[in-house]
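Look at one such:
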Amino acid sequence: MKTMSKKLNLGCGPDYRKGYINCDINPKMNPDLVMDLEEALPFKDNSIDFVLAESIWEHLNNRVHFIEEIHRVLKPKGKTIIKVPHYKYPSAWADVTHKFAFHPMAINPFLNKFKLIKTKCTRRRFMKWIKPDIIWILEKK
């Protein structure tokens, strides 16, 4: 019998994804689990196959704790995709809830725990010189 993979969508907001445990601090988003990502994730060690963290890391005060929690709950060889605003993108600072914007190498201090599969700086279709987002695809070592 094939077991279902356990996937998290952290800070889901309105991006509710079928097949994921959708987590958000705002109950109005109707997540599966209302939780504060500044706290410990309420999952057992090595219990999650995949973590999606799109556009959430920049809102947190304790960014180191957040990535350590992702590492803790991921199974060995589990993967995560983290999407953050590029520090050079002006709109990264237009959102007053953003506490931080990122350089593509900001993930480097965590590469002792994760294997970097890919770093991608996205571009806008009509403004190719602008790189608004960084996407890291990581695998737990």
Notes: The chain has a mean pLDDT of 92. The domain at 7-140 is CATH 3.40.50.150 (Rossmann fold). The radius of gyration is 15 Å.
